[in-house]
Each structure stands twice: as C-alpha cells, then as structure tokens.
Amino acid sequence: MGNKTIYKQPKKLPSYLWVDSKGKRLSFFGKIYKRLHLYSSFKTNSKYEHILDFFIQNDIEKALYDILHYVFKNSNNQGDYLEFGVWEGKSFIRAYNKIKAIKNKNTRLYAFDSFEGLPEPLEEEKKQMVKGSYCCSKDRFVHNLKKAKVNLGDVEVIEGFYENTLNKELQKRLKIKNAGVIYIDCDLYQSTVKVLDFIVPYINTGTVIIFDDWYLYEGRDDQGQRKAFNDWIIRTPNVTYEEFIKVPGHLNSFLMNKENKNEKYRGKKNGIL
Ligand SMILES: C[S@@+](CC[C@H](N)C(=O)[O-])C[C@H]1O[C@@H](n2cnc3c(N)ncnc32)[C@H](O)[C@@H]1O
Q1: DSSP character for 232?
Q2: Atom 13 (ligand 1): residue with closest C-alpha?
C-alpha cells in the first residue's frame, strides 16, 4: 500500500445520527457523516483534499468490487483468492465480504504475511519504506477477522517471510488448483519477485493479479512492483497478460492468459508495459 495517512477517530457523534438512544447503531446518514468526518480529519494540507480523497477511495473500492465481481460472478474462473501482504486485515476482510456478498461459496482465501512487518528494503526503497513497518501479529490479524465475522473455515493463514515460506513444499501442502484473484500489497521489489515466482502454477486464463503498489517509487519502471512484474513476465513461459482495471495513482491489475495449444491468444505477448 502506498502513502498511508493517519487519521483521528471522531470521539462522539451527534445523538441525532444514531438509530437507538444508547448510541449503538448508526443511522444511514450517521454512516455517511462518520465517513466524511474520518476523511476530513486526515492530516493533509488542504480542506478540499480530504473530500477528494474520499472520492478516490471510492474509486479503489469500486475497482476492487468490479474485479471480484468479474472473476467470481461473471467469468468461469472458479479459483481462490490469494493476498500477499495482509497487515491488519483491512483489505483481506474487504475482499472476503465482497466475495461472500457475490454469494461465491467455494472460494477459499489465503493470507500470506510475515506478521513481523516489512523485511529490509533495497537501498533505493529506503527513502519510502522502513524495515519492520506494518507489523501486526498473526493473533491480532486473526482477532480482526473474527471481529469482522469472517468464517475462519474459509481462510488459510501462512505466516513467515516469503523468502522462507514461498517454496515447493508450501505449494504441495496448500493444494491450490487455481487462483481467481491474486492481490499483491507487499510494497517491495524483492518481496514481489518472490510472490510472482510462487504464483505461476496457480495462474490460469482469467486470473486477475492486482498490484496495490503500482505507483510507489514515483511510478518508476525500474523499481518496486513494476520492475518485478516486467522482469517476471519476460522470464515466465506461457503466461501473457492484458491490462485490466486501473486506478491511476493507486493500483493496477492484469487479466492473465495461460496459453495452451487449444486456446486463442488473447493477451499482449510477454511485452513490457
Ligand atoms: C502495506 S502492508 C499490507 C496492507 C494490507 N493489504 C491492507 O491494505 O490493509 C504490507 C504488508 O506486506 C508484508 N510483507 C512485505 N514483504 C514481505 C515479505 N518478504 N514476507 C512477508 N511479508 C511481507 C508486511 O508484513 C506488511 O504486512
């Protein structure tokens, strides 16, 4: 995830925004008010930027919804959801809720994280990334899922640094046949390289890969997720892609194509963006 902003939670909302007198349930307008209030308390410079941020956030939500809807509802891809870099579970829970709202019963969700935060970034990444940031324990992550009423029976959590965990043994153990959506939000070039090499067997025609950090490092092609993807697509046989849904400044996604003899070529042939 790119620039994370810190916000202050509003302490008390006006009583007319609650449905019951004990202040337990927010009304529809209360929810809108709270959301606007949260965004307007973001620590940025201009008042109007907060409002803009609110709508940008909605663009991200919409893009994610469209991707999940396309894969799990409209296409024939009956794959699983894999997220690399889950931190406290915000994006993972969001994906779970959307997948369940689409009424997709078969999808399993996999969460991969060190639960110790970021490993050592490369020299050129150190201006923006710090070792150990985004640290959230596995217990805390699972607690957050339970609090959000996620059915843990649908979820598998894989703890550890990718350098140690993403290997053939894990592939044998997990028995994932096919990935529907792969969400990569691990900020660093080397982490993304590990992830991309690990997911090759799970990619099928119709799998969508989302890069949450596509615009990190000033959007440079020679750093971060862009470099990892561009290098990987060249060295990986039979896998091609088409750019799919993108939210400029935030994320990008690719609709993957696994070539086989009987299939018509659809993507851009292992070219660089
Ligand atoms: C920005 S946070 C993820 C945010 C989360 N997706 C969200 O939106 O709420 C990045 C995560 O990637 C994980 N990560 C990065 N590189 C890793 C690696 N090599 N091995 C394991 N986890 C890694 C960090 O532990 C951290 O939790």
Answers
A1: H
A2: 85
CB-based contact 192:177 (threshold 8 Å): no
Enter the DSSP assignment of 235.
H
Domain spans of the chain, in order of start: 76-261
For residue 107, give every residue at least 6 positions away whose Cβ sits within 8 Å of its Cβ, in sequence order, or none. Answer: 72, 78, 79, 80, 81, 99, 154, 180
Residue-wise pLDDT for 136-191, tens only, equals 999 999 999 999 999 999 999 999 999 999 999 999 999 898 999 999 999 999 99
What is d(CA 259, CA 267) in angstroms, rounded to the nearest whole number?
Answer: 9
Does the C-beta of 189 come closer than 6 Å to ligand 1?
no
Instruction: For residue 117, give the ligand 1 atom closest to its CA.
Output: 25
User: In this structure, what are the phi and psi dihedrals at residue 45, rounded to the nearest 5 degrees?
Assistant: -80, -40
Order the strands of the 155-159 sheet from edge to edge: 155-159, 109-113, 80-84, 179-184, 208-211, 251-258, 239-247
CA-to-CA separations, 157 to 96, 106, 256, in angstroms, rounded? 14, 17, 25
CATH superfamily of 76-261: Vaccinia Virus protein VP39 (3.40.50.150)
C-alpha of residue 252 to centroid of ligand 1, in Å: 17
pTM: 0.80
Ligand 1 pocket, residue 213 CB under 6 Å:
no
At 43 the pLDDT is 42
Of all protein residues, whose CA lies closest to atom 25 belonging to ligand 1?
A: 117
The pair of structure tokens assigned to 214 is: 């596509």
